Amino acid sequence: MSLKSNIILSTLNARYMHTAFGLRYLFANFGKLQQQTTIIEFTIQELPINIVEQLLADNPKIIGFSVYIWNVSEVNNVVAMIKQISPDVIIVLGGPEVSHHPDVPPVTDIADYVISGPGELSLPRLCQQLLNQDLPEQKFITGEAAPLESLVLPYEYYSDEDIRNRLIYVEASRGCPFKCEFCLSALDKTVKAFSLQPFFDAMDSLLARGVRNFKFIDRTFNLKISTSIAILEFFLERMTDDLYLHFEVVPDNLPDKLKEALQRFPKHSLQFEIGVQTFDPEIQDLISRKQNNEKTKQNLLWLRENTGAHLHTDLIFGLPSDTLDNFGDSFDQLVALKPHEIQMGILKRLRGAPLNRHNETYQLRYNPEAPYNILTTKDISFTEMQRVNRFARFWDMIGNSGRFTNTLPLILSEQPFKNFMQLSDELFLLAGSTWKIALKRLFELLYEILTTQFNLSIEVVKEHLALDFERAKLKGIPGYEQTTVAKKASKQGVANKRQLMHN
After folding, report:
1. Checking DSSP bridges between strand 62-66 and strand 90-94, what pairing results, if any?
2. Is cis: bond before 147, omega within 30 of 0?
3. Looking at residue 501, what is its pLDDT?
4. Domain spans of the chain, in order of start
5. At what angle are helices 293-306 and 256-263 packed, to 10 degrees?
6. Rounded CA gap, 371 and 68, in Å?
7. Is residue 206 packed enough to be buried (19+ CB in 10 Å), middle (13-18) or exposed (0-12)?
8. Are 1 and 58 in contact (CB under 8 A)?
9. What pTM was computed for the model?
10. Which terminus of the chain is less hemmed in, N or C, by CB atoms within 10 Å?
């Protein structure tokens, strides 16, 4: 048996393009155990039986899984099958979904060990114990946090295939100072930054290997402005036409020095993920979210008007005391700021999140199956929740896709949320689904709804749809234009016949 197959670090990613950044951090800090450890990644779309076959191919002794809200069901199926085929294989779980004992999913019942929290020190220590037959008595092990300066950085463990085909995640800091109760980062005690020079050396190495798309996973990239500017300057000095940087930013912290640096980036080289979540100050207070709404609006407008950055903003529906109308008001305010995307997030129950203290008071009722999406609250009915779920899906197809830049203003008009909700309801009635709607069919459905239910001018609707249809480079002619063409052909045919008769 190959030494390298003694330990396998694995997970199931949401899609192939994602990389398991956490696994690479673990591997980087495995020391001598690296020689008998390998990383094997899968996606949640793969069959569990095929995953199990690959994992057991070299008879490993230990398999560690990273468990998240998006893969917990699939990991459960894989682990259950492994335990049926090879019960002596030791299963170790880690990740946020299993880190809040006793609030843990059923997969922990069939695993051998569970590490809660950081694993860079605790997992290699546990693996060494297991290989030495020194079995710990406790199943649930609290992970030990390592000083960031002592960690080995993981970036050399991105493969050439990763660089060619997948997202490359990087981080310059860990933690978050804010206490927003819907987020697990509320449990962080402080923010810790990595030393910049080793980080920059690693980024230079990635650039030399061809990486051009860097997705920063820092929760608060613009918290310490001097560090933010140093990172931006680093990339500005190495700017190329294809360099692209993604940051998650605090929306109400945009001082002039940072603005000056941002303005120097070429168009389409920056993407900002901006969590607005809600503009309601009462909900913000209830969930311990500190956000200056006026500054947030001013900064979003400034970014839109003075930089070429792509603005991806987030709203959450289903927060305690939220209502359909109240959420619509936040949506309308955000639409007015013209971000490129508005992600319509539905509240999910995260194990360990402080928001769970509100579950009974506000009757927050969640799906018992992952991803634990909210189903009803004291103020939101199940029917309303389903309508917003469909709204979110159709918004992705029409609002966020960028395919309907000419038609979307017709839909939103002066009452964006009310109008798009009406459109969403009508689309669902006509299509019977929010999935598998061909783009050409979507154009035809929009035409029918806008001309009949919205009572818009046929000529105006056709004009705007035609511009978007051309941009989409679709082949053929949509149904509503075919009817027009047929009528014209029929009229022309009659005219030709008349002319022949007169001749």
Report:
1. parallel
2. no
3. 35
4. 3-148, 167-380, 386-503
5. 20
6. 9
7. middle
8. yes
9. 0.92
10. C
Instruction: Determine the topology of domain 167-380 in CATH.
Output: pyruvate-formate lyase- activating enzyme (3.80.30)
Taking phi first (over 0 means left), then psi (-120 to 50 degrees means alpha), and beta for anything else, what does residue 377 get?
beta
End-to-end CA distance of the chain: 94
Dig out the tokens for 237 from the structure. Answer: 């000095």
Where helices occur in 158-255 by DSSP H, the ranges are 160-165, 196-208, 225-236
CA 303 to chain centre: 21
pLDDT of residue 356: 96
For residue 138, count CB atoms less than 10 angstroms from its CB and return exposed for 0-12, middle for 13-18, buried for 19 or more: exposed
What pLDDT score was predicted for residue 483? 60
Per-residue pLDDT tens over the stretch 402-443: 999 999 999 999 999 999 999 999 999 999 999 989 999 999
| Tokens (6 digits) for 254 | 């945009």
CA dihedral 43, 47, 48, 53 (to 10 degrees): -100
Tell the CATH superfamily of the 3-148 domain. Cobalamin-binding domain (3.40.50.280)
Q: Among candidates 310, 151, 176, which has minimal Cα distance to 244? A: 310
Reported as a pLDDT band with limits 50, 70 and 90, residue 482 is confident
Angle at Cα 412 formed by Cα 420 and Cα 406, nearest 5°?
A: 115
pLDDT of residue 347: 98
Contact 25, 148 (CB under 8 A): no
111-157 pLDDT tens trace? 999 999 999 999 999 999 999 999 999 999 999 999 999 999 999 99
pLDDT tens figures, 320-344: 999 999 999 999 999 999 999 999 9
303-314 core/surface letters (b: 16 or more CB in 10 A; e: else): beeebebbbbbb
Query: What one-letter code names the amino acid at 425?
Result: D
Share above pLDDT 70 across residues of the chain, in percent, rounded to a whole number: 95
Q: Which tokens go with 408? A: 């979307």
Measured in degrees and rounded to the nearest 5, phi and psi for residue 7 equal -130, 130
369 CB-contact burial (10 Å; exposed 0-12 / middle 13-18 / buried 19+):
exposed
What is the 3-state secondary structure of 41-108?
EEECCCCHHHHHHHHCCCCCCEEEEECCCCCHHHHHHHHHHHHHHCCCCEEEEECHHHCCCCCCCCHH
Contact yes or no for 362/378 (Cβ under 8 A) = yes
